[in-house]
Design brief:
The structure is a single chain. The chain contains six helices and ten strands, in the order βαααβββββαααββββ. By secondary structure, the chain is of the alpha+beta class. The protein has two domains: 133 residues, Thiol Ester Dehydrase, Chain A (Roll); 115 residues, Hotdog Thioesterase (Thiol Ester Dehydrase, Chain A). Strands 1-3-4-5-2-7-10-9-8-6 form a ten-stranded antiparallel beta sheet. It starts with 14 loop residues before the first strand and ends with a strand. 39% of the residues are buried.
């Protein structure tokens, strides 16, 4: 079924997402937080909210746009993700999110949909934005624009990272992360994963993204989540629950960090990533 190109430039109706401290804590645990990270997993300490939690209230808006676009979940791959934070995320609240399909590019073997979600609080003030690149296999070849080319951001060969931290994912990581709202059976159902071409269920790309964001907050932000203003990344490889993830960051002249996440066997699974951190 061809994608609904009439949706390009259209904004969906707002969707409401209400959450409590326990939801922020559940998300933190889903991206690997431990009891040692007490500020993020203990309600008596706030809790502080990881900036990458921004993907959770926006997820329904992203799914809504994908559904209206006509994208088959079996054929969908998450290509890139960016969050932009306008202010700290409170430990509980009610948000409204709208989604806009900014464009759909023809990549030959598939289509690449660029979907932006904008999230506001109850008073209509912006809290954060998400930009997601969604690759839909088998929907290319419609004669459209291939889209702008992007520079590849590789870590410098002659410079050690400013930080490098390894986190172990658990065998149950995907089963835990999905409770924050991403219920795609690809991450829990072996039969579904096999039909999608994988040996077993894979970890959510946004879970890997959350692990990387946690590392950035701890190492580049000194544990202060309010210092992370934006994080963009490209998903470059598959992660299976139980694998170790090493996130490294190289500080650049403009104060941003080039981020890369690799597995225990050296595969890069998150790259072309940049974290914008306040001083």
């Amino acid at each position: 079924m061809a994608l609904n190109m009439d949706l390009i430039g259209k904004t969906t109706d707002p969707l409401v997402h209400e959450y409590e401290a326990r939801d922020a804590i559940l998300y933190a645990l889903g991206v690997g937080a431990t009891p040692e990270e007490l500020d993020f997993v203990y309600e008596a300490r706030g809790p502080k909210v990881l900036p990458t939690f921004a993907v959770v209230p926006a997820f329904k808006g992203l799914l809504d746009a994908c559904g209206k676009l006509g994208a088959d979940l079996m054929k969908v791959l998450h290509g890139e993700q960016e969050i932009r934070l306008h202010r700290p995320i409170p430990p509980s609240g009610a948000f409204q999110t709208t989604a806009t399909v900014k464009n759909v590019y023809d990549k030959g073997k598939g289509a690449l949909a660029i979907i932006e979600t904008n999230t506001t609080d109850a008073s209509g003030e912006p809290v954060f934005d998400n930009v997601s690149s969604i690759f839909v296999r088998g929907e290319g070849g419609f004669g459209g624009d291939r889209g702008p080319s992007q520079d590849k951001l590789d870590p410098p060969d002659d410079e050690p990272p400013a930080f490098s931290v390894t986190h172990q994912t658990s065998a149950a990581q995907a089963a835990l992360y999905r409770l924050s709202g991403d219920l795609n059976p690809l991450h829990i159902d072996p039969d579904f994963a096999a039909r999608a071409g994988f040996d077993r269920p894979i970890l959510h790309g946004l879970c890997t993204y959350g692990f990387a964001g946690r590392a950035v907050v701890a190492e580049a932000c000194g544990g202060d989540p309010h210092k992370l203003r934006a994080l963009s990344a490209r998903f470059t490889g598959v992660v299976y629950p139980g694998e170790a993830l090493t996130t490294s960051g190289w500080r650049r002249e403009d104060g941003t960090y080039l981020i890369q996440t690799t597995t225990h066997d050296g595969r890069t699974v998150l790259g072309n990533a940049v974290a914008d951190v306040t001083a």
